[in-house]
Each structure stands twice: as structure tokens, then as C-alpha cells.
Amino acid sequence: MIYEIYIATCTTRSVLLRKNYRPLHVDGSSQSSWEIFCRKRQKITEGSIAPHFVEDGIHFYYIRRGGLLFVATSVKDVCATTVIEFLSRLYYMAKDFCGIVTEESVKANSLLLHEILCDVMDFGYVQIVSSEKVKPYVTSEAITMGSCASDPEELVTRLFGIESHRAPATAAHRPAVRTSLDQGGQKNEIFVDLIERLTVVTDAKGNIGRMQVQGTINVKNFLLGHPKVKVALNEDLQISSRDQVKGFGSSALLDRCNFHQCVDLSEFDTSRIISFLPPPGEFSAMVYSLNEVGLNLPLRVTFFTRDIPNSRDVNVIMSVYCNILGTIGLLMLSSHFVFRLQYPVYHST
């Protein structure tokens, strides 16, 4: 069972929200569990702290999302994977109800989040981890917060001249789950984002030593009712086997491919079509990865050193060459996506 839940900032470590399910007493110490957690973070660098550790007889579990810390405590040795998965789902539930999870949104929606924490757990035991199931028990309305593009996104746009087509902030950051019974003002929309993260290790000459691509197809559902959605991927999409040679051919060859539990794969093997009844909120319909494949990189980085006259110092020059037309995983195939929405038809008697 879980004793406490904290939502706090990473920088100032100020607690934004705290929910206590069981009385937690630290033997022989006048500090609270949060003070013990902060003391542990000060003693050890942040990068080396495990997501589960024991300090002064208290088990701490935590994740970091969007500059915030989601922390759970217990005096029992609960399965770390279960608690961390619950904290991750708690973050996505907060995102579904609030639209965006930041310090400002948590402060503005503290009453709503406290109500969610009361509904998802009973005396420290997890009961509900789905936004759709907890929705009927939540009565508070979310306070929407504005958002703008982050500094790294603006820097990349100015540096490489990439034209970014994004949903308006009012749509991308509004709550996906409406608690009010009146949904007349809600737009009938669905957003599908293809996100890929590329990790490359190269030598001094630019030769690739290791490359890994991790991609996901995220769906944020604002559709009314329960329509059926079909997503058609490229027909030449392949999933490699252990003895298959990779890096040859023009088709996208994936090493691993996982799907959300709501996805129907009856047409995937024959026509590369996935269909699902999207639950309200945001979820990952498909997660895939590629390792050590011979694909063109979107960027090429080279380093040069130049001696400074009459000095022992040298100038290190880094040059970045843009090659956006290179293919990476499914990213260049996004224009070939086909979306079909199939609504159930009701006949009046």
C-alpha cells in the first residue's frame, strides 16, 4: 500500500500537492518524509538517484515529468514497477483532466487533482487508473492554462528554418476529459502526433558507431461518443526477425513494435491498418524502435580544432549540417497516413 503522494517542483522542491492516505511516522527523526527525500537528493547527484530507494526506513518511489516530481512513499516494500507505473498513469490522468501539467496548472487545479487522488486510491490501495473510469466521480471543473512554444523548439525553428505545423495552444493544451454533463461547446477533434527520438554515437570523423530510433504514435482524443478510428500505415512496413539482415531496401524495417490495448490488429498483417475505439484523453497507439540501421541522418556534426597563436589554448569549432530530407523510421512516412473515422449509426424507433 501507498502512504503518501507528493507533487512538487524539481528546482525549488516546493510541494504543490500532498495527499496522505495513512499516518506515516518516522522513528527517531523530527523530519517529515518530504524533508528526508530532499536530503537524499542533496547528498547524491540527481542523475544517480534510482527511482526507488530506501531512506530512514521509508521506501520512496518517484518519476520526473515536465519539470515536476511525482513521489510516493511507503513503509512496506511494495513492487517498485507497480508504484512507478501508477505514478506515470497519474501524470497522464492529470494531463487528461487539466490539459497541461505544469507548476501553474497544478496550483490552479489543486482541488481537481486532490479529488482525483481521493478517487483513484482507497486507504493506500490503487482502485482506478483510467481517466474514463474516474470521470463519473469527478465534479470539479478544470481551469485551463495558456502555453507557448518552448525555447528549444523556437531555437530549432530559427536555426534550420523548419516550418512547424502544430495545433493551436488552446487545442493542444485543453483538457481532453470534460467533467461537465454539458459538452455542447466541445469540438469534435482528434490529434495524432508522430514523435521520434534519435540517438547516435559517432567517432571524430563522423562515422556512425551506434544508432537507435525510438518512435511513438500519440493520439489525443476530443471526439464525442465512441467512433471507430482507422490508421493506415505504409504497406511496405516490415517488422524484422532475429535472422533478417537490416539496413537494405527502401522500406521501413522496425525491430520492435508494441500497440495499445485498445488497438485492433486484425488488418495489420495484411494491409498495415490499425483500428481502435480511442478512449478519452491521450495515449500511445503504437510504440516502435530501430537499432543500428543504415538510414540517412537528419543532421551531421563535425568538429575542428584551430590553434591560437602565442597561446596554449585551441579553438574548437563545431559545424552542424542539416539534411532534413533523410529518412528516419516512420517520420518521412507521416504524409502517407490515412485516417478514417467510423461513427455508430443510431436509428430512432
Total number of helices: 8
SSE succession:
EEHEEEHHHEEHHHEEEEEEEHEEEEE
- Percent strand equals 25-35%
The percent of residues in helical segments reads 10-25%
Largest sheet: 5 strands, antiparallel
Strand order of the largest sheet: 2-1-5-4-3
Low-confidence sequence ranges: 332-337
What Rg do the Cα atoms give? 24 Å
The shape, in one word, is globular
Mean pLDDT across residues: 78
Could you say which structural class the secondary elements and strand pairing correspond to?
alpha+beta
Overall number of strands: 19
Measure the end-to-end span. 51 Å
Task: Please summarize what this structure is.
This protein has helices spanning 33-43, 80-98, 103-108, 110-120, 131-134, 151-160, 169-172, 268-271; strands spanning 4-9, 15-20, 52-55, 58-65, 68-74, 121-122, 125-126, 190-202, 208-221, 228-232, 238-239, 253-254, 256-259, 263-264, 273-276, 281-291, 299-307, 314-322, 338-342.
Structure keywords:
8 helices; 5-stranded antiparallel beta sheet; 19 strands; 33% strand; 349 residues; 4-stranded antiparallel beta sheet; alpha+beta; single chain
Describe the model.
This protein has 349 residues and is α+β, with helices and mostly antiparallel strands. It contains eight helices and 19 strands. A hairpin with a 2-residue loop joins strand 4 and strand 5 (68-74). Mean pLDDT is 78; it is low at 332-337.
